[in-house]
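Course assignment 3, question 2. Fill in each field.
Student: A.L.
Task: Predict the tertiary structure for the chain below.
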Amino acid sequence: MSVKHYRKGVKKRREERLRLLKAKQRRFHVLPLREERDIPPQFPLPSSRTNSASSAPMFKLICAMLLFTAVLMIMNTDHPQLADAKTLIRDVMTLDFNVEGVWAWYEAFTGQAPGFLPRLIARDDSSLPPASDYVVPVSGARIVAGFNQDQQGIVLETGTTLDVEVVKEGWVTYVGEKEGLGKVVIIDHGQGEESWYGRLQDIHVHLYDWVNQGEVIGTTSVQDGRDAGVLYFALRKNSEFINPLDVIPFE
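Answer field:
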C-alpha cells in the first residue's frame, strides 16, 4: 500500500467519524450553559393561596348576609317555637353598652386606662377617693371594731340580718372564702379602688358580674347565739387598705 492510499483512507475514516458525531448532536441537542442561565425557572403559581385570599372577603360577606336574613326572618315570623329567639335578639339589640364598666374592667386587668375608649371618667390620683362617691353598705349599723393595721377594715353590726349593698359601681373580681373573713365579695371600682365585703351569710352575685351602686350583693351573717347581723367591710386604694371612716360617713 502506498503512502498516498494510506492518507486517503485516514481522511475517509475521519470524515465518517465527523458525520456520525454531527448526527448525534442533532439527536441530543443541549443548550449552551450561558443560554440555560438566561432562562428563568418556571414554578407553578400558588393558585390555592391566591384563591383563598381573594375569596375570604366574599365568604364574610355571604355569612353576614345569611345572618341578616336569618334574623330578619325570625323577627317577621309568628311561629311559637321562635318566640325565645325573638326575645333574645330584641334584648341584645336594645342592650345599653356600659362604657364605664368596660373602662373599669380593662383598667383592673391591665393596670392602665384603655386608649381606644374616650376619657369619660375623671382620674383621681389622691390617696383617698372622694367621699361623695360612696354610700354605706348597710343602713343603721354600728361600728363594733375599728380600722387598724391587723384587721385592715371595720366590723359593722346590725340589729338584724340586712341586705348588703354595693358602695360604688364596679366589677366583681372575687367571690369565695378567706381565712378569718368567711364568705367574701371583692368589687373593683377602677382607678385602683376596691371594696371588700366579708362575713356574709348569703351571696347574690357571681364572679365578673357588673354591679351598680346600691345593688344588693348578699346579706349580713348572724352571730352565734345572737340575732344581730355582722359585716366586715374594707376599702383599698392603690393596693393599700385605707380607713373606710375617712371616706364614708357612717351615721
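Instructor remarks: The chain has three domains: 3-35, 59-94, 131-246. The radius of gyration is 42 Å.
Grade: pending
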